[in-house]
Amino acid sequence: MRLCVSLAKFIAEKTEWHYWAESGRKISRTGDTGTQANKYNMSAPAADDESPAPAPRYVPAPLTELQIKYTKIFINNEWHNSSSGKKFTTYNPATGEKICDIEEGDKVEVDKAVKAAREAFQIGSTWRRMDASGRGRLLHKLADLMERDRVILSTIESIDSGKLFLHAYFVDLDGSIKTLRYYAGWADKIQGRTIPVDGDYLTFTRHEPIGVCGQIIPWNFPLLMFTWKLAPALCCGNTVVIKPAEQTPLTALYMGALVKEAGFPPGVVNIVPGYGCTAGATITSHMDIDKVAFTGSTEVGKLIQEAAGKSNLKRVTLELGGKNPNIIFADADLDFAVEQAHHGLFFHQGQCCLAGSRIFVEEPVYKEFVCKSISLAQKHVIGNPLHEAVTHGPQIDKEQYDKILNLIESGKKEGAKLECGGLPWGDKGFFIQPTVFSEVTDEMRIAKEEIFGPVQQIIKFKTVDEVIKRANNTHYGLVAAVFTKDINKAFTVASALQAGTVWVNCYNAMHVQSPFGGFKMSGNGREMGEYGLQEYTEIKTITIKIPQKNS
């Protein structure tokens, strides 16, 4: 997930673009298509139909006539209707309107998908006999097809998840393609070791694929998490059964078509859209699935761990929630720290497990930090995420929308100071104004619970020891950040923080080469980088009796 803040800021604020659209043609784009928050108090409707004359620029443009082609269940490289005849609807969160109906997979479809995946994994199958370099070539081909269809995928992702189109195009698609290419390169470099044991023996290890992997994808980064799960699993030679989130199934299903076009053998990749309580629960408890990877809430992660233990003790990788501390010392570059903290929280409307939602600011610069943070929050343009000028889109659905507003109310009732925002926006869709709270204390709900929305909490601290203790006083441990010009202070704090990733003088600096995962109730295992391969292989020791050993 390459959520580079500099890129996010560039996308959000750049006024001149120098990119070619997918067709390579020169295109004209609309200018201001939303409402500037500070100018119109973030409550007026977006001026979607009252835009000024378009100016010529070189930019990627979303498709205006998008046709949804893939709505069925993908098993064994074929498209299937649900056996129950049931369908579910996916909605556009920017309008609340129906996009299309999707075939609803449940236990029957999961069983069929697992059977197909198991057959594809059998000894002597096309997939098992394929050279490791051949697996790498297929992953590269899949990345090539994503490059070709980048505008289509970005448009679908924006409409189905409410993600800003330009973020989808420049961040999510970029990260997805890089993930495929990175693991394509690893496919023929996964090696065991020769071990010098005592006696007349030759001992060596093999890193073998685990088998059939169940993979459950979240709604906030549907395509990016699809590739995070898929690429290392296939790189190592496994087969997969993927369940996309019921809120955002469309890009995963489109990827099914690309998987087939790329030339993956039947049964290697299977995609079953459906609900967590049916399709997802079947995957986690299935006796013929060897490993489950899940990204989502800690609450659901616990259920998955329990189901795995009660079934066949399948291996489990969990990337769960976070209530991430971002610590700003008085000696930091304050303007840069404000900017990084802002994008670290408001990226994708706060719907990120790694959002820096507990911002600890040292007392001497606290007031200035709050004022600058308010100014940035009020500059957001709320509206249709397909439009270039919009910098703040909708929340994913009514459930999340209501949860966020409830937590905002709790913050006000518990004594936090609402500096800006805090209200719904518009007359359709699930928009919430960018919200900033100051005077937040550790015992407040907004300081303890994962909000997963555009709500920034700014907390005051006085000493290093104090802030370390308070930052670690949480059940979560996903990411953290420290801003200071003092390298000794930075290293001391980074070493003390209980988090899987700690950034120093940056935020959201995610890279495909670096491992990602959490401490404590933020999950277990690691994704991405070389470490991510360990989650998809079994280590086998082979010892051979030999007549005489020679060193």
In what range is the share of β-strand residues?
15-25%
Determine the fraction of residues in helical runs and give it as a percent range: 25-40%
Number-wise, the strands total 26
Tell me about the largest β-sheet.
7 strands, mixed
Q: Give the mean pLDDT.
A: 91
Query: What structural class results from the helix and strand content?
Result: alpha/beta
N- to C-terminal distance: 46 Å
Radius of gyration: 24 Å
- Uncertain regions spanning at least 5 consecutive residues: 1-53
Biggest sheet strand line-up: 18-21-22-16-15-23-24
**Count of DSSP helices?**
17
> What sort of overall outline do the alpha carbons produce when their principal axes are compared?
globular
Short summary of the structure?
By secondary structure, this protein is of the alpha/beta class. Helix content is 36%, strand content 20%.
Question: Care to describe what's here?
Answer:
The protein has 551 residues and is α/β, with parallel strands linked by helices. Helices cover 36% and strands 20% of the residues. It has 17 helices and 26 strands. Strands 18-21-22-16-15-23-24 form a seven-stranded mixed β-sheet, with helices on both faces. It has a six-stranded mixed β-sheet with strand order 12-11-10-13-14-25, with helices on both faces. It has a three-stranded antiparallel β-sheet with strand order 8-9-26, with no helix packed on it. Strand 23 (479-483), helix 17 and strand 24 form a beta-alpha-beta unit. Helix 3 packs parallel to helix 10, helix 6 (150-161) crosses helix 7 (165-186) and helix 7 packs parallel to helix 8. The two termini are 46 Å apart.
